[in-house]
TrEMBL record:
Divalent metal cations. Prefers magnesium or manganese. It holds the Pfam family Malic_M. Its cofactor is Mn(2+); Mg(2+). Belongs to the malic enzymes family. The keyword Transmembrane helix does not apply. Residues 116-296 form the Malic enzyme N-terminal domain. This is Malic enzyme. PROSITE patterns: MALIC_ENZYMES (PS00331). Keywords: Metal-binding, Oxidoreductase. The active site is at residues 139, 210. It comes from the Eukaryota. A divalent metal cation binds at residues 281-282, 305. Residues 306-580 form the Malic enzyme NAD-binding domain.
Length: 618
């Protein structure tokens, strides 16, 4: 039956499919070698039951103008695309030329989305080959603008929406998703999108953008990802009053109703995809923490804004110690100011505290809390009994209410300092060595504060981490000018390097994108059942060790987003190691292969593979 050498080749790769496929083509007398000139002994193939226009309109199958003649023949699309078969490099030339003609980042975003909707292989090739430039379009910062405008630039559906009208139906609905294998799910309720606040269902662009980076940076398969919005309503008046808004037109569910909604969704996911990693994204404080606390020991999940941001910020601080010529286990010698007390602020500080405790140079957790001064939108979390500082000019930072501080935030309360001191007062009083911005409030790192900081330390570590760019606590230019070019600088969104008095001052980007694709890859490869704190701490240490001595000296803390695949590989290997060490891995290790080889081999690379049609009744 398998006389044809090409069919034998396929047979050795996907026995089940090809045996069936042979039957199929036998019936149509298409078993000559000529039908499969593109298949060789070692050829990878993808199979489909689709035919004709359905192939062309499926972005996971479509190759646009790159279908070979024999593929056109066997997929029933002969004559349905222009006659010349165009290799991928030619397609890329055309795409790049068109992309360059887009005038604004948002136009580029719309262009990239359209490409993703037509041909995912080409989309990911383009993205991977131009990661530094294009991650700024499909991800931070442009994705922020795209979220705000989601309901007006909406073209085609992607991902799944679970909304308040779906209660009681979610377990059935999850079966509408077309793929049986899902490895990574990114879910948001749109309540705190980047530093932009409540954007309701418009937040969908965030899971889509994050998952595109999972594929491009972490080598996860595009068929194995699922972006999700939990549409529990919105409190954004502008959206509620906009007749074109696409989400539910009621205010947010809260309290028990909210948690019951999420619980039903988790059950639905678990019923179909029990092994999938769930990334909670852009949930407002304290829901973000409460959900993490509820689910982290029950399912394979993490919160990106709390845990990944924490890992990358810690990586940045550790690398900054190295750049200053200090050992990385001297974290306890730093004095750290954190502006922002929401999920990211508290998450980052907890990661630093965990690390100080792990390094063994503090006697207690309390001592570690003492090295961090936290400010919320009213100023320092200090001692009300000592009086409150001038509140006539409240700091415009963060969301939330000073009166609602919880036990996580109160750990940082400074008993010996007045409550609500402003940033400059705090800086003058404690002379910090590191200042972190996780406030979502632009400009809060003001000149007075940063100049005062620079007086007390040779190389001030200035990390305004809020996103997107216009929410940053200060600009790179400001940081270098106010510190005479001495700052070690990193921001959440990209800035260009700054020239200051003839010297090029290096800008780093500390974004959780450096962490989550590698983490997801490690979890997927090892089939870890849980995501643990150790995985994040080791991720931080791994990333912090990636820059060379020379790079550190020049102010580069670690490789940029352009090297995301290399960073992700290292992180994934570490995460796998921990998964096996902690006895959480469910994948069998393969004999004779190192973890690094297994990770490398499992990374998906966008290239066209021959497509063959199979019988739908397999
Ligand atoms: O999306 C980003 O660029 C980083 C992030 O998670 C956030 O700011 O919420
Ligand atoms: Mg986020």
């Amino acid at each position: 039956m398998l006389r044809n050498p090409a069919l034998k080749a396929v047979h050795s790769f996907t026995r089940r499919h090809v045996t069936c496929q042979v039957r199929n083509y036998n019936r149509r007398a298409l078993t000559t070698t000529a039908t499969f000139p593109d298949l060789r002994m070692e050829t990878m193939v993808q199979t489909t039951t689709k035919h004709g226009m359905d192939v062309i309109h499926d972005p996971l199958l479509s190759k646009g103008t790159a279908f070979s003649l024999s593929e056109r023949e066997r997929l029933g699309i002969r004559g349905l695309v222009p006659p010349r078969t165009q290799e991928m490099d030619k397609q890329l030339q055309r795409i790049i030329r068109n992309l360059r003609e887009c005038r604004t980042p948002l136009e580029k975003f719309i262009f990239m989305t359209a490409l993703q909707d037509r041909n995912e292989t080409l989309f990911y090739r383009l993205l991977i080959d131009n990661l530094e430039e294009l991650s700024q379009i499909i991800y931070t910062p442009t994705v922020g603008e795209a979220c705000k405008r989601f309901h007006s630039i909406y073209r085609r559906s992607r991902g799944m929406y679970f909304s308040s009208i779906d209660r009681g139906q979610m377990a059935a609905m999850i079966h509408n998703w077309p793929h049986d294998q899902v490895d990574v799910i990114v879910v948001t309720d749109g309540s705190r999108v980047l530093g932009l606040g409540d954007l309701g269902a418009n937040g969908m662009q965030i899971p889509i953008g994050k998952l595109s980076l999972y594929v491009a940076g972490g080598g996860i398969r595009p068929t194995s990802i699922l972006p999700v919005v939990l549409d529990v309503g919105t409190n954004n008046e502008e959206l509620l009053n906009d007749p074109l808004y696409l989400g539910m037109g009621h205010r947010r569910l809260d309290g028990d109703e909210y948690y019951a909604f999420v619980e039903e969704w988790v059950h639905a996911i678990q019923s179909r995809y029990p092994n999938a990693l769930i990334q909670f994204e852009d949930f407002k404080y304290p829901h973000a923490y409460n959900l993490l606390h509820k689910y982290r020991d029950r399912i394979c999940c993490f919160n990106d804004d709390i845990q990944s941001t924490s890992a990358v910020a810690l990586a940045g601080v550790l690398a900054a110690l190295k750049a200053r010529g200090k050992p990385i286990n001297a974290l306890n010698e730093e004095r750290i100011v954190c502006v922002g007390a929401g999920s990211a602020g508290v998450g980052v500080c907890e990661g630093i505290v965990d690390c100080m405790v792990e390094q063994g140079k503090v006697k207690s957790r309390e001592e570690a809390y003492g090295k961090i001064w936290m400010l919320d939108q009213h100023g320092l979390i200090g001692n009300v009994h000592l009086g409150t500082a001038d509140t006539s000019k409240p700091m415009p930072i963060g969301i939330g209410d000073r009166a609602n501080l919880d036990e996580r935030q109160l750990c940082y309360l400074k008993k010996d300092m007045r409550d609500r001191m402003n940033l400059e007062e705090v800086v003058k009083a404690i002379k910090p060595t590191v200042i972190l911005g996780l406030s979502g409030s632009p400009g809060v790192f003001n000149e007075g504060a940063i100049r005062a900081m620079a007086e007390g330390v040779e190389k001030p570590v200035v990390f305004p981490l809020s996103n997107p760019t216009h929410q940053s606590e200060c600009t790179a230019e400001q940081a270098f000018h106010w510190t005479d070019g001495r700052a070690i600088f990193a921001s959440g969104s990209p800035f260009k390097d700054v020239e200051y008095r003839g010297k090029i001052c290096k800008v780093n980007q500390i974004n959780n994108a450096m962490s989550f694709p590698g983490l997801g890859l490690g979890i997927t490869v090892s089939r870890a059942s849980r995501v643990t704190s150790k995985m994040f701490m080791e991720t931080a240490i791994t990333i912090a060790s990636m820059a060379s001595e020379d790079q550190l000296k020049s102010g580069v803390l670690f490789p940029g987003v352009g090297s995301l695949r290399e960073v992700s590989k290292e992180v994934a290997v570490k995460v796998c190691e921990i998964a096996y060490e902690e006895d959480l891995a469910r994948a069998q290790l393969r004999q004779g292969m190192s973890l690094k080889e297994i990770v490398e081999e499992s990374m998906w690379d966008p290239e066209y593979v021959p497509t063959i049609r199979i019988d739908g009744h397999m």
